[in-house]
Amino acid sequence: MLFMTKEVVQDNFTGFYIHGSLAMGGFNPNRSDIDILIVTEAPLKIETKRRLALLFLAHSNKPFPVEVSCVNREQLKSFEHPCPFDFHYSEFWRERYEEDLKLKTYEFLNGEIKKDPDLAAHITIINHRGICIEGKSIVEVFPLIPQSFYKTSIIGDFNECLEYIFEEPVYCTLNLIRVYLYLSEGIISSKQEAGNWGLSSLPIEMFVSLQKVMYNYSHKQGTYQLEENELLFIRNYFANKVRGLLG
């Protein structure tokens, strides 16, 4: 995928970087995606965005889904939060991009510069634990993200997980732990690392529930059902703890 990406962006290529679970040693082939951040020297042209969309539509989910963002050097140099970006792909966008390309429309694949609050978290993880696959070094390319930006970014995900824990119990539980671990101890972790820490460090009343979560996370088909009272306990515990940490 690196080689094909370089073919698309050509001389505009700065670097290809991995963050997320694959970079942190917690990649789960049953649940994880491959998190990629591509940096270019100059903004992407519309036609380049459309070619990138074709590339990732063809190769995401073969065998693992990818989530990729493209930013240019100027966007990183004058970093603002939420951070602007040139292009983004994840499976969430698959149908929209397919429709745009099929109908030759520009509703989603266009020249608009969008902003993503998650980039503050992605770049923080790259700075701490990311991998440069090819191109300029991480320290040369990426700015240090203010802690306040990183906190704002992960708290957004935290609040969504409080809301959707009954629909996505495994993802949301592990993400709640991950945010709490960072806020309480300053540790940036993968979901797997956060879950393992939770098993050894969180209240015993949560232990059986976390065992279920970790088993389901490690297997393609979730085996254990989490009851409503278990998820309520988890949600309320972390909501109260994080509220206390944030003051």
TrEMBL record:
All residue ranges annotated as the Polymerase nucleotidyl transferase domain in the record: 14-78
Coiled-coil intervals: none
Keyword vocabulary terms for this entry: Antibiotic resistance, ATP-binding, Nucleotide-binding, Nucleotidyltransferase, Transferase
BP term (GO), one: response to antibiotic
The UniProt record lists the keyword ATP-binding: yes
GO molecular function per UniProt: adenylyltransferase activity; ATP binding
Catalytic activity: spectinomycin + ATP = 9-O-adenylylspectinomycin + diphosphate
Protein name: Spectinomycin 9-adenylyltransferase
Species of origin: Mesobacillus subterraneus
